[in-house]
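Hi everyone, sorry if this is the wrong subforum. Our group has a chain we'd like a structural model of before ordering constructs, and none of us has done structure prediction before. Sequence below.
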Amino acid sequence: MKKIPLNLPNILSLYRLASFPFVLTIELLRMEKLFVWLICINLVTDILDGLIARAFNMKTEIGAKLDSIADDATYILVFTGIFLFKWADFRPHAFSFFTFFGLFLFCNLLSVIKFGRFPSLHLYSWKVCGYVQGFFFFTLFVFGFNTSFYYFMVISGTLAFIENIIIQLMIRKMISNAKGLYWVIGRRKEEKNGLA
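Answer:
Right subforum, don't worry. Here is the predicted structure as tokens:
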């Protein structure tokens, strides 16, 4: 296995991974206030690692993989927190929530089955929606459920998940920092013209 460079973005991702079992234990012990503090720290570090990596040109293939795994760990903690602490707010919106959750799972399962690893496409839509989702989850646990913000998060997230799935179905091997569907189609055309 490649050695992980210990730059600040990777340290933040490693923190999120290392904190996962501790935060999950706090959740399962129903320590909601401590969980809220810890999940907010995780959400902030999730935003910071990508911003720092892009701003200071610290993007690496292994860093992208690490960030994606840490993102999935954070999602698991958030979804567990929703089921344990906020389900009464989500119950009237169960269909949209389970559709959103199902697409998230499908994105990851498709990648594991097809490529043998978690996705690390880092699409622009995925990044933007990740910020929207992070802010929604932050406000959910700190201030409470907001229906309009919830549907904005679900619709934008669903579109990002669908783009991710389409790209995974198109490509032969997992790539990092793919930007978007338009970029992937353009790259395929270039490769095809290069072979012609």
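For your construct planning: The mean pLDDT is 90. The longest helix spans residues 61-90.
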